[in-house]
Amino acid sequence: MAVNFKMAAATVVAVAAYLALAVLGEGGWRSYTAHPALIALALVTIALGIAALFTKGNLSSGEREDRGNRWVLAVFGVVGLLLGYVPALTDRLGFLTFGGEGVRWLGVLLFALGGALRIAPVFTLGERFSGLVAIQPDHELVTDGLYGVVRNPSYLGLLVSTLGWALAFRSGVGILLAACMVPPLIARIHSEEALLGERFGTQYQAYRARTWRLFPGLY
Fold this sequence. Notes:
The chain crosses the membrane at residues 38-59, 71-90, 102-120. By secondary structure, the chain is mainly α.
């Protein structure tokens, strides 16, 4: 499978920077590695980054893009940077933290499961998966597998993984930051659904009627 070297370089930099923020927040490498769960968190982050190298996800605007939704990317970027650093900082300071090592390991588990759920649809969609809200050339509606249950499995994975990251640092502030991802995600989902509804018409309406938008059984 071919690797997009520009995207690969961006992924490597992003993973390294994210882990560096966490180490910095914890007060250095020695403090960070004092917790086995955080070592596992770093290893899972690296593994997910390696897996991402072999996806075909992109930032293509395709045939048609809702450019008015690009503000969501800026929010994701800001909240993402805060999540990289702040939970680790509050962990070191003992500010609004809770639980012990069991909470950390629960966080690692959720981060791994959420990360896998986040990246699996990128493999499924291939070049049709764009970081922008856009219809791609030869766009087809996928309605089986994970998409047969929830219409946005990758976004569900993002929320689960960010919650897991916060819990790995036992951070109440981190949980609040993870919750801040929900409003822009919902805005992005509505934008995508509008485009897909226009493209696929009654086929998409029927698909919406038999699946959940984000949380199975809830929403």
